UniProtKB/TrEMBL annotation:
Source organism of this protein record: Alloyangia pacifica
GO cellular component: ATP-binding cassette (ABC) transporter complex, substrate-binding subunit-containing
Highest classification ranks of the organism: Bacteria, Pseudomonadati, Pseudomonadota, Alphaproteobacteria, Rhodobacterales
Family to which this protein belongs: Belongs to the ABC transporter superfamily.
Keywords: ATP-binding, Cell inner membrane, Cell membrane, Membrane, Nucleotide-binding, Sugar transport, Translocase, Transport
GO MF entries: ABC-type transporter activity; ATP binding; ATP hydrolysis activity
Name of this protein: sn-glycerol 3-phosphate transport system ATP-binding protein
Length: 226
């Protein structure tokens, strides 16, 4: 766990689009921040800058006090969960979850233990030898979460992780993420379009508009305003 700090962060894409401007957010150790706002307001861009998938044009991103602007994604100690799951289709569930740890050179014993624990938490034990194509959407998303959890990162980033699931699954996965959050207490930045997700998960809500922070506050505070 670690605090995650955005200081005057901005992004101008090649071609001159100002996607994010002067964003300041101090995320406390263990805090769960949900980022909302209309389509095109810069949510994905912001997340991708924190992940290291997009360069930061202006300002600084700190994780656990360390400036990470110029670090590769793998060096940031952050795990990201994507809307489209981004699983490796040719690998089993087990290997998908183990991949990051193997790359990092963890021992076989550590990898087995972490994968087994994540599989227990996410009720994936009976699917470990399957390929992603033989799983339901909800199961695939749980594998994507398992892959993030096993790394025991300083922070999680979620980019609309539930928006490809049907309404019923979204409700149960929302509760599942809430349980994981209570159990792991990992600093998180979560993008969603779903107000119930935001209300259920957020310690604080950040509303972006036109690439700028419009409001920051507890969910009830933010949603009460017109
Ligand atoms: P899109 O065009 O991408 O569907 P919307 O304009 O529907 O985007 O807004 C996306 C979500 O962001 C909404 O579901 C809403 O919950 C949230 N949202 C947008 N603006 C605000 C706001 N000012 N305060 C709180 N939540 C907001
Ligand atoms: P959101 O996730 O809130 O829908 P995005 O971060 O995807 O918003 O986009 C913010 C703005 O940046 C939009 O105007 C979008 O068109 C633009 N944008 C996003 N990605 C790129 C890119 N690779 N190149 C140029 N402009 C982009």
């Amino acid at each position: 766990m670690a605090e995650l700090t955005l200081k005057s962060v901005g992004k101008t894409y090649a071609g001159g689009v100002d996607a994010v401007s002067d964003v300041n957010i101090d995320i406390k150790d263990g805090e769960f921040i949900v980022l909302v706002g209309p389509s095109g307001c810069g949510k994905s861009t912001l997340l991708r800058m924190v992940a290291g998938l997009e360069t930061v044009t202006r300002g600084d991103v700190h994780i656990g006090g360390r400036r990470v602007n110029d670090l590769d994604p793998a060096e940031r100690d952050i795990a990201m969960v994507f809307q489209n799951y981004a699983l490796y289709p040719h690998m089993s569930v087990r290997d998908n979850m183990a991949y990051g740890l193997k790359n990092r050179g963890e021992s076989k014993a550590v990898i087995e233990e972490r994968v087994a624990e994540a599989a227990r938490m996410l009720e994936l034990g009976q699917y470990l030898d399957r390929k992603p194509r033989a799983l339901s959407g909800g199961q695939r998303q749980r594998v994507a979460m398992g892959r993030a959890i096993v790394r025991q990162p300083s922070a999680f980033l979620f980019d609309e992780p539930l928006s490809n699931l049907d309404a019923k699954l979204r409700v149960s996965m929302r509760m599942e993420i809430r349980k994981l959050q209570q159990r792991l207490g990992t600093t998180s930045l979560y993008v969603t379009h779903d107000q119930l997700e935001a209300m259920t998960l957020a310690d604080r809500l950040v509303v972006l508009n036109g690439g700028r922070v419009e409001q920051i506050g507890a969910p009830l505070e933010v949603y009460r305003k017109p």
